[in-house]
Structures are given as C-alpha cells and as structure tokens.
C-alpha cells in the first residue's frame, strides 16, 4: 500500500504531458537499440540490378555481400567480375521470391569449415572502399582476373588453313565465350607438361561462360582424340573444313611466304607427274583427306559432340555460320550480321570496328595472301583424287559441302 500511495503522489505532482514524453522517449530508445542489436540478422533483398559479363544478377545476392565479394582477395569469390548498376528495381513479387533464394545463396557460399571473417574486410577498409570506389572504378577493377581457370569445354580442333582463326575471333566477341589467343598445342606437343599447365593457360571464366581454345593440328594428330577424351568425355569439338584443294594451295602459300626456296606446288603434289601419281604423304595434301582423320575421332566421340563449319560459307555468310556454332555451344545468338563487314582488299569478312578502337578488327597479314598461279590440270587431278574421300566425308558427317561444284567450274574454265 505504501508503494502505490507513493506512486500516486509522484504522478499527481508531475504533469501528465511530461510523463507521456518521458515514456515515449524510453520506448523509442528501446526500439532503436533493439533494431541495432538484430541488424546483422536481417536479410535485405538487393534493390538494384547488377550486370556483369552480359548476365543479370538481381535477387540472388545482397548489397553488402556483393560488395564484400567484389573486394575480397579470396579465390572463393573470384567468380565475381565487372559490375554495372542499372536503374531497374525488383517488383513486389520479386522481393517475396528473393528472400528464400538469398538465404539459400548465403548458406551455400558460407562454408562451415571457413570463418566468414576470413573473407570480410575490416571495418576501416570497408568504409574506405565505400567512400572511394565509384561505379566507373568498379568497371575498371573487375577485370578478367575475377573468375576461375577451367579446362576447355569446347575446342576448335581443325583444320589448318580452314578458317579457324576467323571463327575464334568471331566467337570471342560473345560475352559468354573466353578463349586463349595463342594455340596451346597441348595434345600434340606439350602433353607431358600436364593438365595443370594446360589449365593455367586458360583465361578466367565466370559461371555460365565457356572456356575455349583452338589448335588446328589436333585434327590430324593420331593420339589427340584419346587424350582429349581422357580429359573430358563430354567436350564439344568444332572442325572448320574447306575444299581440300583450295586448302592445300593456301597451306603451300603460307609455307612459301616463310621459305621462298621450296619447290613449286606441282613438284610437291606429285610423285610422278607423268603417271599422275599424287603424293598423299605431303602434309599439305594429307590434311585434306578429312574422312581418314575423322574416323579416328569417331572412335571416341559421337557426331552429336562435333560441329562442322564450312570454311566457304564462313566467308560468304559469316553470320549464318556463327548462328549454327552458337546454337551448338548452347549460347544465345549474340554475334550476328551486324558484327561483320566484307573487306574487299583481303577478300573475306572482318569484324566491325569496336566503339573503343580506332581500327577495325581484321585478321593479320598472314591471312588472305594471294595464291600462286597453279596449272589448271594439276587442280583438276587433285579434285579427282579427293572426290571419293569427300563423298565418304559427306556420308560420315551427314553434310554436303558441295566442293564438286568448284571442280566443275575449274573443268569448264580449262575447256574455254
């Protein structure tokens, strides 16, 4: 009774307005400290979209987590790369859908064997980053160093002087393709160096991107099919082929530019010109026996894992051939006819000038050389030599490359 009496005396002496303000301030203070204490446990869906490497990432990450991954030096998070904000915000439905996915993403990324503190920058570092880093700096800093080096999922295995470089350069325009520029020659010359050495040559890729390389000599290397199969049974193989006669002349032209003292094409092509005996052991001619080489590859890989590109159509309709290649690789058709223009000087298509470059992207001086004049009778005999092998190749691939049409045009011109 004494307590209640003293309380009623206190309330009677203090104005009710002051008592109300005092009680309200205590409530607000309590609410504030409650929110601060549980702030780290709250999950906030990302309010902005981020674009990197042509892929949208919206609900799957939080703003704080994304920044930590971008600045972390840990290889666990090297899958993150170039970020760019857009103005689009998620809808209400996306927010509802985002929360469980965000929680699941964090659960899978935070390994129980590693402390989160090991990957998180300290408070002063994080504050300095947030103050000094702009979106433009993010675009510069998030380079190809981010990601993971992987063994190739697709290889351009042939053929030499078929148009492999043109195909690779066109594919590299696609944001979901990362390819090593130089030819590694791993499966024919450097196999003893091991897969770790081979993997280290590859560019870093993000999830959803394809790692590629091209080495045309693989197609004619006997042990390459088995070696590639032992690395990846489900790998995709791309073979660029062209008329074997034209290919042989182009091959000879390249060698002639490096060794002007070599014999003429006619001398090298025949064992006995009078009898018409073709020297199929000459590498320039042997490469063009496509059916012979394909037989070795079909012992290890089904045709469904191979795609054959017409070198002739790659010149007259590069966008059409690129559409088929992108479909084969499971890529969106991003490289289209708007990326090409025909270079009359070189005689083949080039990639159009990028916005940030002053020169168009065209193949170098080693491409598009003028072929030496070859006796039409030699060309006719070579077409006759290759014809049964071409027919066999058409049957094996299920494609008709129509190289006999060129043979007919040569025959008509020789008769005129």
UniProtKB/TrEMBL annotation:
Q: What are the entry keywords?
A: Disulfide bond, Glycoprotein, Golgi apparatus, Membrane, Signal-anchor, Transferase, Transmembrane, Transmembrane helix
List GO molecular-function terms, semicolon-separated: [heparan sulfate]-glucosamine 3-sulfotransferase activity
The UniProt annotation puts the region (Disordered) at 113-136
Localization, UniProt: Endomembrane system; Golgi apparatus membrane
Task: Spell out the Pfam families in the cross-references.
Answer: Sulfotransfer_1 (PF00685)
Q: Where does 3'-phosphoadenylyl sulfate bind?
A: 161-165, 242, 250, 367-371
Tell me the InterPro entries matching this sequence.
NST/OST, P-loop_NTPase, Sulfotransferase_dom
Statement: the UniProt record of this protein carries the keyword Membrane: yes
Active site, per annotation: 161 (for sulfotransferase activity)
User: Topology in the membrane?
Assistant: Single-pass type II membrane protein
- Cite the EC number: 2.8.2.-
The record's principal subcellular location, in a coarse class, is membrane
Gene Ontology cellular component annotations, sorted alphabetically: Golgi membrane
Q: Which residues form the Sulfotransferase domain?
A: 152-387
Q: Which family does it belong to?
A: Belongs to the sulfotransferase 1 family.
Extract the PANTHER family matched here: HEPARAN SULFATE GLUCOSAMINE 3-O-SULFOTRANSFERASE 4, HEPARAN SULFATE SULFOTRANSFERASE
What protein am I looking at? Sulfotransferase
What organism does the record attribute this protein to? Answer: Poecilia reticulata (Guppy)
């Amino acid at each position: 009774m004494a307590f209640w009496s003293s309380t009623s005396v206190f309330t009677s002496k203090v104005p009710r307005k002051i008592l109300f303000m005092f009680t309200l301030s205590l409530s607000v203070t309590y609410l504030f400290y409650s929110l601060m204490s549980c702030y780290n446990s709250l999950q906030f869906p990302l309010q902005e979209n981020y674009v990197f490497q042509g892929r949208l990432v919206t609900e799957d990450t939080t703003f704080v987590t994304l920044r930590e991954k971008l600045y972390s030096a840990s290889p666990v998070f090297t899958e993150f790369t170039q970020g760019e904000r857009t103005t689009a915000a998620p809808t209400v439905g996306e927010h509802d859908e985002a929360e469980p996915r965000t929680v699941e993403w964090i659960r899978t990324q935070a390994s129980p064997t590693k402390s989160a503190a090991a990957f998180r920058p300290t408070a002063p570092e994080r504050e300095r980053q947030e103050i000094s880093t702009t979106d433009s700096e993010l675009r510069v800093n998030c380079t190809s160093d981010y990601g993971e080096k992987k063994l190739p999922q697709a290889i351009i295995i042939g053929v030499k002087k078929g148009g492999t470089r043109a195909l690779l350069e066109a594919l590299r325009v696609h944001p979901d393709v990362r390819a090593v520029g130089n030819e590694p020659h791993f499966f024919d010359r450097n196999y003893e160096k091991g897969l770790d050495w081979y993997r280290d040559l590859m560019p870093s890729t993000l999830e959803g991107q394809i790692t590629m390389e091209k080495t045309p000599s693989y197609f004619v290397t006997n042990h390459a099919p088995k070696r590639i199969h032992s690395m990846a049974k489900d790998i995709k193989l791309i073979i660029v082929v062209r008329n074997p006669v034209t290919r042989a002349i182009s091959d000879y032209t390249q060698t002639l530019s490096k060794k002007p003292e070599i014999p003429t094409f006619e001398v090298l092509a025949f064992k006995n010109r009078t009898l018409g005996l073709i020297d199929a052991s000459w590498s320039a001619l042997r490469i063009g026996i496509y059916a012979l080489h394909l037989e070795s590859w079909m012992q290890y890989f089904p045709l469904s894992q191979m795609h054959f590109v017409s070198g002739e159509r790659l010149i007259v309709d590069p966008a059409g051939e690129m559409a088929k290649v992108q479909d084969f690789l499971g890529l969106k058709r991003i490289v289209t006819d708007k990326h090409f223009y025909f270079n009359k000087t070189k005689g083949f298509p080039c990639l159009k000038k990028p916005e940030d470059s002053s020169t168009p992207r065209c193949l170098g001086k080693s491409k598009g050389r003028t072929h030496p004049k070859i006796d039409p009778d030699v060309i006719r005999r070579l077409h006759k030599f290759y014809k049964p092998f071409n027919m066999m190749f058409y049957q094996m691939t299920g494609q008709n490359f129509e190289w006999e049409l060129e043979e007919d045009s040569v025959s008509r011109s020789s008769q005129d």
